[in-house]
């Protein structure tokens, strides 16, 4: 029976009576063999075995809900799902390029729309499309940056928020970013007939909804807000 030798340097190995026969004469030779194995290219079959296959997502089946037929449910959920898909994209882009959140942008935009570029806090709260309950906190942040100014007239309880010249300049840059994103992720998927149909649908639903005077002012946005 031949004497076993080290797989790296070829030196004879001492074989004990029990246990697994040694393959290397020293820890140094064992480390060299390990490094050599690491340098060898991985065979394609082994590479495929190492790739973790993605687990397919379970198929979601719409179930019956009270008051809505399946088509009605899908139409409603479509509004929510499109908003959930699009708004985070617009929010991230706007924040990274301008430092404004969508909520802050919308407050500035609603002020800019007015002929005198100002609104009462209660009216502003009702006009804002995103997180209206936090209008007072949003306005406070914008005021710290010099983008808006709150004015309280003597003898009147209502607080007016006014867009400053600096706020109008920053809003102009933000509109360039935001509405370019709106075109990219929303408008470009619609043709003229789609746009006209959507405008008509939103107007019909909006006009059938309770008017702002029928609804309580959002929390934290009363006439006395400061």
TrEMBL record:
Gene3D superfamilies on file: Winged helix-like DNA-binding domain superfamily/Winged helix DNA-binding domain
InterPro entries hit by this protein: HTH_MarR-typ (IPR000835), MarR/SlyA-like (IPR039422), WH-like_DNA-bd_sf (IPR036388), WH_DNA-bd_sf (IPR036390)
TM spans (from-to): none
Protein name (Swiss-Prot/TrEMBL): Regulatory protein MarR
Domain of life: Bacteria
Chain ranges of the HTH marR-type domain: 72-207
GO molecular function, one term: DNA-binding transcription factor activity
One GO term (biological process): response to stress
Record-linked Pfam families: MarR_2 (PF12802)
